[in-house]
Amino acid sequence: MREMLPTHARSTDSLDGKAIREFLKSHGYDVQSSAISRMKIDIDDRLRGDVVESYQKLQAYFKVMTIKNPDSMWRIDRESDNATFQRACFIPNVGIHISKMCKSRIGFDGTHLKGEMNKRGVYLVATTKDFNNHVIPFALALVPVENYENWHWFLTCVKLATGMEKFTTISDRQKGLLASVAEVFPKSGHRYCLCHIMNNINRQGAKLSIDERRTICAMARSDCENDFKLFRSELAASKPAAAEYLDNIDGKHWIKYKFIEAFGLPTFNEITSNLSEQANNWMGSELRSAKPLNGFSLYFQKLSELTSDKRQVAANWAQKHPDSDLVPILRAQLAYCVQHLGPQSEDGHIHTWRLVDLPGQECTCGNWKDQAFPCIHAICAAIQDGCRLEHLYDSVKMSIKHFTATYTFRFRPWPKDVTLDTDTTLLIPVLQIEDERLGKQGLKPGPKPKHKRRRAKNAL
What we know:
Elements: H1 17-26, H2 33-48, H3 51-56, H4 58-68, E1 73-78, E2 85-91, H5 93-101, E3 105-112, E4 122-129, E5 135-143, H6 148-162, E6 168-171, H7 175-184, E7 189-192, H8 194-203, H9 210-220, H10 225-238, H11 240-247, H12 256-263, H13 274-288, H14 292-320, H15 328-339, E8 344-346, E9 350-351, E10 356-357, E11 362-363, H16 367-371, H17 376-385, H18 400-407, E12 438-439, E13 442-443
Parallel strand pairs: 3-6, 6-7
Antiparallel strand pairs: 1-2, 2-5, 3-4, 4-5, 8-9, 10-11, 12-13
Helix pairs in contact: 5-18, 6-7, 9-10, 10-11, 13-14, 14-18
């Protein structure tokens, strides 16, 4: 049976009964469906080990990883009976290092397990972005459910490991996460994902058109109150229910100028939690359907591959652009702004519609402070004033050299196949099964599969 597994990425998650039956027939065997089902279970257990053993070896594996990668942080908790596995978290030393070298922008999200592990918990992941906008999942935890208690526990682990306190985060409005961020990181600024907000508006019956979604995005990116009122009036004219729904959400958590006023932190021009969504895609089905020991092992392997790839990327940049030390995405942004300079209305660093303060590194458009990188108005003013452009931003942190240093860190994803102690006293957690919902005509059906859900077009 192992002959057919390479075509299924050495996983039985995509290996269905039909594929097994056809494979057996090609070898002259004809078996019943019940036998095929037992074969699939047997193959999976042989490849990834028994579920119980995977939980019982996890602590020993974490200890080995910490020895091989000093300064990593891990934690495993048991239930009140001191016997049943409750939750586990591992923050590798390379993840701690990367989080301190990247933007002050952290994403938190939960992703359900898949396959046979579907009802055994949720992965909580913390992500960040480097200065070339690459996403890095730097911390991972396995918890039974996504709620306040587990989010608070995970965020506390992240805080203890990284020492971070003040940053911008963006997520959906999951109640447990909102309260936990406010308590664990009181100095941080929490933005709500606009995609989730607009989807909630659609569920309320106020179906948004493409233009209306664009208007809401413009509201979220408003530089001042006048701009916001203008965009809101446009939305209220076409979809008053949507405007009223947004009025009930605290503006400091989704409107740019109000967020900056309240928290004094940049939004980095991001209005959705796509950072976390990208992390879920990066994790992939194989990791999310693996047993705990295999899942964390895959995470370490993927993280090691990611850092190696980024080191190679940095080396290629240095060869292609020896005349510039700015990371490519910012170099392109700077070149675009220089190419499309607007005319000056009069002397004194006044753009046609913006006021620029070069010494204070601030522009009335708000984008310089919001993105920690000069806007087109600042560049226009600097060139007219004879100021060097590299003085307008942190040329050290945004350099290729800093990018290389971000990913130049020794990390060894030790194989899980080494001899590991088995904690036979540890019991595996019970399956997390949702309560049946009763409607007027009997039990309500569960949620539709993702591929059957109707999706609104993304106007972001």
